[in-house]
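Consider the tokenized backbone below.
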């Protein structure tokens, strides 16, 4: 998630279409809060029932009447837990589109609640069976986080279908406005619809085709005329801090949301630290993480992970090898020179998915290339064998690269390993991809795979290099299974 997307979390969840609709917009927020509250109430009630009936499964349980304890304590526990969720800000809608803030706050509220109950029971010398305590807060905490995750996934699908979108206006320089509009159009799951632009450029549309609705000074009039409740200010919106303050005052009177996007893109929230100093919102930006990605922690994880996965995948790899051999009696493994860490070449291994003369036929097919940039892609490549099409669909052809990861040529997660001919066409920025080991899977693979443009592929790989973390690696590995099973963008 980029810095821009993190700032967009402050936007609302539903759009408005008129002044009267703004009242409906406020009501919709009330409805959302009620739904969230009811969902949490059901989860907590369910956790109480599980704790009572499954208490005997806890080996270190103590004696006590669970039914009696819960009957007396349930109303107070439920009320306190819901209050704690409210105090920790878990019902703030701005954090419920993306990011981990919502989950972190639910966890902290639940841990605090568990701590208060434990301390209170000790001080008051009240009997609260251990099994009941452990099950209640374990099941309840997991349930609250899971329910929020499920709700977010449902809303993402609803947004992708074009429902409950937030209409917004973007102000600033044309280039910055188009960059923001491009992100919002690509990330449809966020649920934002750009109505138009407000810019100082004298044109009917921005270079990206977004209609210009007025000048910066006309922002308030544009908002009223086009009935939007949110405006995003990008770079180039204000010439001085005084202009920003005046605009904030005007928009305060109009009861609209104002979001300011800093001149930072593709920087993860983990690298940012906002500190107000003498009235200035200073943003400390940690250095890029490419060096950290090459250290022993990631390498140790690659060795252990690839070794375990090789053992688990051995039966499948054996079947794939047999199927390839029986189809055309050709070699099972396809070896190809790829470029790895710091431009070092290595022999990348794959199960052969094409005819044995595939390389010789490549030149004849270049005119039908569907890939962008230096990549060659064909939806219906005639060189792919019958077995090859199946193993490509589920990415089984890449299983031998686990050996590359074990050896150190590759990593489990990283940018795709590029061909020398592709690297020869890289510009200086794109060569940044070579600062970490290439991976079996990566951020672009779980974000659309072959359906992405070359620019988006490079952007995602550079984001990964600059913002590497072990948590991100684990998330990418978890998302890889879904992308492979769905075979989205694989051909």
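A designed sequence for it:
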């Amino acid at each position: 998630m980029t810095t821009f997307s993190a700032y967009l979390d402050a936007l609302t969840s539903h759009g408005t279409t008129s002044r009267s609709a703004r009242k409906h917009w406020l009501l919709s927020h009330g409805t959302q809060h009620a739904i969230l509250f009811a969902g949490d109430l059901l989860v907590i009630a369910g956790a109480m029932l599980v704790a009572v009936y499954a208490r005997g499964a806890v080996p270190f349980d103590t004696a006590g009447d669970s039914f009696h304890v819960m009957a007396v304590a349930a109303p107070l526990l439920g009320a306190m837990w819901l209050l704690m969720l409210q105090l920790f800000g878990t019902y703030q809608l701005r954090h419920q589109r993306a990011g981990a803030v919502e989950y972190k706050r639910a966890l902290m509220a639940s841990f605090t609640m568990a701590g208060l109950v434990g301390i209170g029971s000790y001080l008051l010398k009240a009997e609260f069976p251990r099994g009941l305590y452990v099950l209640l807060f374990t099941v309840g905490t997991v349930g609250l986080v899971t329910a929020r995750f499920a709700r977010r996934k449902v809303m993402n699908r609803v947004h992708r279908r074009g429902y409950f979108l937030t209409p917004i206006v973007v102000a600033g320089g044309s280039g910055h406005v188009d960059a923001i509009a491009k992100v919002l159009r690509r990330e449809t799951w966020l649920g934002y619809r750009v109505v138009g632009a407000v810019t100082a450029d004298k044109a009917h549309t921005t270079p990206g085709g977004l209609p210009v609705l007025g000048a910066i000074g006309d922002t308030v009039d544009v908002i009223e005329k086009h009935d939007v409740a949110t405006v995003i200010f990008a770079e180039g919106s204000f010439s001085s801090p005084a202009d920003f303050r005046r605009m904030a005052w005007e928009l305060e009177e109009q009861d609209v949301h104002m979001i300011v996007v800093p001149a930072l893109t593709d920087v993860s929230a983990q690298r940012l630290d906002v500190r107000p100093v003498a009235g200035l919102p200073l943003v400390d930006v940690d250095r890029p993480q490419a060096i950290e990605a090459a250290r022993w922690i990631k390498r140790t994880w690659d060795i252990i992970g690839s070794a375990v996965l090789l053992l688990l995948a051995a039966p499948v790899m054996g079947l794939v090898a047999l199927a390839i051999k029986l189809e055309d009696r050709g070699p099972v493994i396809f070896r190809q020179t790829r470029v790895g860490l710091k431009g070092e070449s290595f022999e990348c291994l794959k199960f052969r998915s094409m005819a044995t003369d595939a390389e010789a036929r490549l030149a004849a097919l270049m005119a039908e290339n569907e890939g962008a940039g230096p990549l060659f892609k064909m939806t219906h490549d005639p060189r792919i064998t019958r077995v090859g099409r199946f193993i490509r669909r589920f990415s089984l052809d890449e299983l031998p690269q686990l050996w590359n990861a074990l050896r150190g040529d590759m990593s489990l997660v990283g940018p795709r390993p590029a061909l020398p001919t592709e690297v020869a066409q890289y510009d200086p920025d794109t060569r940044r991809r070579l600062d970490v080991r290439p991976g079996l899977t990566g951020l672009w693979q779980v974000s659309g795979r072959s359906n992405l443009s070359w620019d988006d592929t490079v952007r995602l790989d550079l984001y990964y290099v600059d913002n590497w973390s072990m948590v991100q690696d684990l998330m990418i590995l978890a998302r890889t299974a879904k992308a492979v099973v769905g075979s989205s963008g694989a051909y």
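Confidence is low (pLDDT under 50) at residues 1-27.
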